[in-house]
Amino acid sequence: METEYGYAGARSPRRHFLPPALRAPFEGRTFREFAHLLLSLPIGIALFVWSVTLVSVSAGLLITFLGIPLMAAGLMGCRAFGVVERARARALLGVEIGEPQPVRARGGLMSWIGGVLKSGVSWRHLLYAFLQMPWAIFTFAVVVPLWTTGWLLFSYPLWRWVFPAYTGMGGIQLYGDDHHQVYLDSPFEIAVTSLAGLLITLAVPWLIRGFATVDKVMVTGLLGPSRLEERVTELESDRGVVVDTSAADLRRIERDLHDGAQARLVALAMDLGLAKEKLTEDPQAAARMVGEAHGEVKVALQELRDLARGIHPAILTDRGLDAALSSVASRCTVPVQVEVDLPARPVPAIEGIAYFTVSELLQNVSKHSGAGRASVDVWRAGDRLMLQVSDNGRGGADASAGSGLAGLAERLGSVDGILMVDSPRGGPTTITAELPWRA
Question: Per-residue pLDDT for 430 more than 50?
Answer without folding.
Answer: yes
